[in-house]
Specification:
Layout (H helix, E strand, L loop, with lengths): L10 E4 L6 H10 L3 E4 L4 E3 L5 H8 L6 E4 L2 H7 L12 E3 L2 H9 L6 E2 L5 H8 L8 E7 L5 H7 L4 E11 L4 H9 L5 E5 L2 H11 L3 H4 L3 E5 L2 H9 L5 E3 L5 H11 L3
Parallel strand pairs: 1-2, 1-9, 4-5, 4-7, 5-6, 7-8, 9-10, 10-11
Antiparallel strand pairs: 3-8
Helix pairs in contact: 1-11, 3-4, 5-6
Length: about 250
């Protein structure tokens, strides 16, 4: 039973990958919500890891390492020797910084604006011809970061660190949660998760999207929701579970 709180009586569906969902679930429970889990993304190894492992073995040839998510950290840093001479590490937010620390490395800078544009804004002024930047990333990453850094004249090496797919069990699980029940509050933490959710609903999406009350982790994900015609979106100011809860609480009256 959910405790009393600003989200008491509200069901919130958490769609993060299973290994990342617990913290989000606990934050919503503390606000009184009934939390259920529907993982809509699963992180898997890339088909060809050779470029990734080669980049890790040559980490000392780079002037900067840019890490854009905790998933990227977990996919890339285990390939780096603990004794390697590391370049300064720039990350996109607190969760990524924490993941770097868990692997025994030190973060040089954390972008205040937690998206690709924020990383370009932070790092760009220090780059230029002759500088080498390594960017491990998801195989479906937006080109914004790499293109923005390359505009400085720096050599930017982008390597696929991991792939993402829809978990097989999600189709049956979604049917259990939404058949005959309004969609209600659903959390979204990436454009890929948004796409997977729409794909799960299939031909019912157009008829049912008005039932959705989306809570988004940030502007990029919100733009993805808007592209599918979602109107009721509560967007977190920062990409943390607490800020997503805050956004949902503020959006309950809308």
């Amino acid at each position: 039973m959910s405790a009393a709180g600003p989200l008491a009586g509200q069901r919130v569906v958490i769609t993060r990958a299973a290994h990342q969902a617990a913290e989000s679930g606990e934050a919503f429970r503390r606000a009184g919500a009934e939390v259920v889990f529907l993982p809509l993304i699963e992180v898997v190894e890339v088909a060809d890891p050779k470029p990734l492992t080669l980049a890790a073995s040559r980490i000392d040839t780079f002037d900067h390492l840019v890490l854009t998510s905790a998933n990227t950290v977990r996919a890339f840093l285990p390939w780096v020797s603990p004794s390697a001479k590391m370049p300064p590490i720039t990350v996109v937010g607190p969760a990524t910084a924490a993941a770097v620390s868990e692997h025994g490395f030190t973060v040089a800078e954390t972008a205040v604006r937690t998206d690709a544009e924020g990383l370009v804004e932070l790092l760009g002024p220090r780059l230029g011809p002759g500088r080498r930047v390594l960017v491990p990333q998801a195989d479906d990453a937006r080109p914004t970061l790499v293109e923005g850094l390359r505009e400085t004249g720096a050599e930017v090496v982008a390597v696929d660190a991991y792939s993402k797919r829809l978990p097989v069990a999600s189709v049956e699980r979604a049917a259990e949660l939404f058949d005959g029940v309004p969609l209600g509050w659903v959390s979204f933490t990436s454009p890929r998760i948004v796409r997977h959710f729409v794909e799960l609903l299939g031909t019912d999406w157009e008829a049912r999207r008005g039932e959705l009350r989306a809570v988004s982790i940030g502007r990029v994900t919100t733009r993805a929701l808007e592209s599918y015609g979602v109107e009721r979106i509560a967007t977190a100011d920062q990409p943390t579970p607490e800020d997503m809860v805050r956004a949902a609480v503020e959006g309950t009256g809308n």
